[in-house]
Design brief:
CATH topology of the largest domain: Aminopeptidase
Oligomer: single chain
Keywords: Acyltransferase, Cell shape, Cell wall biogenesis/degradation, Peptidoglycan synthesis, Transferase
InterPro entries: Acyl_CoA_acyltransferase, FEMABX, PG_Glycine_Bridge_Synth
Radius of gyration: 21 Å
Family: Belongs to the FemABX family.
Pfam families: FemAB
Strand content: 25-35%
CATH architecture of the largest domain: 3-Layer(aba) Sandwich
Order of helices and strands: EHHEEEHEEHEHEEHHEHHEEEHEHEEH
Number of helices: 12
Protein name: Peptidoglycan bridge formation glycyltransferase FemA/FemB family protein
Length: 374
């Protein structure tokens, strides 16, 4: 029998999230407040006894001049992804509910890891001239159930989406991320997992007098100045300052320690800054920024180690450094960031990616054409 899907209150949604060890920060009610161009709705899955057994945050983006919506569940929903009856019992009622709400297309991101590569495996892949992408390297571990899930989604009419950004209609989260496992490990063990360069840089920063402090909302302007400089250097379009202020207000209104800001000071100047998000036992390094000045004092390593240490103190099971490139070619300007994250001694993880289901094929095709022109 199919589960019943209906809109639930924010409180019910938040209680469901709080009862789980790990839920994406994009699947909490407050994330809808961060995205004012989308209309947010909390969905609940109910079983025959009326118990809430699944939840998700869906963002609805209107199609220009039409009362039809792209429905997007970033890194969600939070359901039993490995259920044998996933398609019929869990996903079909979700599609029916969203179609009734005016959705012409649904995009979701199953929070399911397919493959993992240890830090040593990633370093070996970078050094291997025959490996052009991370997927060319043998993984350290594979989740067979994830591969089966992909086949079931394809068989049910879902199609794997091409990677994208979040500008306008384009929506996309990183398929490849870098994570440091914390569960069952002491801080000393985590520190021991750092590579030699990282440990050396942390000591160098300490000796140079770099001080890492927690900031508050008033320090977002200092963060933003570095963020704009980083955007120019790394060739990406920066978000406006209002976005980060909205994040701070919305997330910390839901939980007083949901979002943190860290700043690395040296000789009276802020050289690096970063935001950190926490939901349950999962901690994310969210946005980072730094100046090109005085890099020799290693502010980024010092700041990351302070964040990693604080995450351990919060009881984190994983410290998530978010997206990495899967391209291993020397010409890729993001390869340096991958090397930086590999130095933490964690592991690269490949998620199942994002999946689309066209409820109205004509409008879905029109959206594809619109995005292609952009």
């Amino acid at each position: 029998m199919s589960l019943r899907v209906q809109t639930i209150t924010r409180d019910a949604h938040l209680a469901f999230v709080a009862a789980r060890p790990s839920v994406s920060h994009m699947q909490i009610p407050a994330w809808g407040d961060v995205k004012p161009d989308w209309r947010a709705e909390s969905l609940g899955w109910f079983d025959e006894r009326g118990a809430l057994v699944g939840a998700g945050l869906v963002l609805l983006r209107p199609l220009p001049r039409l009362k039809r919506y792209l429905a997007y569940l970033p890194e969600g929903p939070v359901v039993d992804w490995f259920a044998a009856d996933l398609v019929e019992r869990w996903l079909k009622p979700m599609l029916a509910h969203l179609k009734a709400r005016g959705a012409f297309s649904v995009k979701m991101g199953p929070p399911v890891v397919v493959r993992r590569w240890s830090a040593d495996a990633v370093k070996a892949a970078i050094a291997d001239p025959g490996a052009r992408r991370l997927r060319d390297a043998a993984p350290t571990s594979t989740e067979p159930r994830a591969l089966d899930l992909a086949e079931r989604l394809r068989g049910a009419g879902w199609r794997q989406a091409e990677p994208g950004g979040e500008d306008g209609f384009a929506a996309g989260q990183p398929r490849y991320v870098f994570q440091v496992p914390y569960a069952g490990r002491s801080l000393e063990e985590i520190q021991g997992g750092l590579n030699q360069q990282w440990r050396r840089n942390i000591k160098k920063a300490e000796k140079a007098g770099v001080k890492v402090v927690r900031g508050d909302q008033t320090d977002l302007a200092a963060f933003y100045g570095l963020y704009v400089e980083t955007a120019e250097r790394d060739r990406f379009i920066p978000r406006p300052l209002a976005y980060f202020r909205r994040m701070w207000t919305a997330l910390n209104a839901e939980h007083p320690d949901r979002m943190r800001l860290y700043l690395a000071h040296h000789d009276g100047e802020v050289l690096a800054a970063a935001t950190m998000l926490t939901v349950g036992e999962h901690v994310w390094y969210s946005y980072g920024a730094s100046t090109s000045r005085r890099r020799e004092v290693q502010p980024n390593n010092a700041m990351q180690w302070r964040m990693m240490s604080d995450a351990h103190g919060l009881g984190a099971a994983v410290y998530d450094l978010r997206g990495i490139t899967d391209t291993l070619e020397d010409g890729d300007h993001l390869l340096g960031l991958l090397r930086f994250k590999v130095g933490t001694g964690g592991e690269a993880a490949e998620y199942l990616g994002e999946w689309d289901f066209p409820l109205n094929r004509v409008l879905h095709r029109a959206l594809d054409l619109y995005l292609a022109r952009r």
